[in-house]
Request: fold
Amino acid sequence: MGKGTHGRIKIEYDSPVVLTFAFCSLFVLIADTFTGGAANIYLFSVYRSPLSDPLFYVRLFCHVLGHADFSHFFGNMTLFLIVGPAVERRYGSRNLLISMALTALASGLLHVAVSADTALLGASGIVFLCIFLSAVDGVRDGKLSLSFILVAVIYLGQAIYEGIFVRDSVSQLAHIVGGVCGIACGLYLGRRGRRGDS
Reply:
């Protein structure tokens, strides 16, 4: 055993943006449970409301932290925690955070523009962002990787199909926005050499 280790394992906060987002989402879910749903209604879901309402602008960004229940939360966070850390290492913490904020804003604005009577919440758009940020890394030097094509066909194709033919409580629009933002941000950051700062 190496000198000074004494057999102890150090836990590293290796992906600050991903881990902080996951912990904040868990805190929001607990807070929503204790407030009987009020936290999600007022802060962590986005829906059409007067532009004079200052909380509307908070909800445009913060709806990605809200989840309907623990099943919804675990479904999103499982994939996010698998894909997210690698994406954060590849593109840098600041770039990932900006990409997440842009995705939240885009999905929030599009939702209120097309949906007058429903609320949107959840991190599925952020999950799709990370999936496509990871996949788009294979697009470089004028070559398009087969893995990227398959990811685009499977994930975006499924979201578009379900958005047209399946009526459920899942917002396929957020998935599509997340995927498009992932492609756009990935290509832009790729041209700039990916990492800004970590």
Summary: The chain has a mean pLDDT of 85. The radius of gyration is 18 Å. Residues 16-187 form a domain with the Rhomboid-like fold fold (CATH 1.20.1540.10).
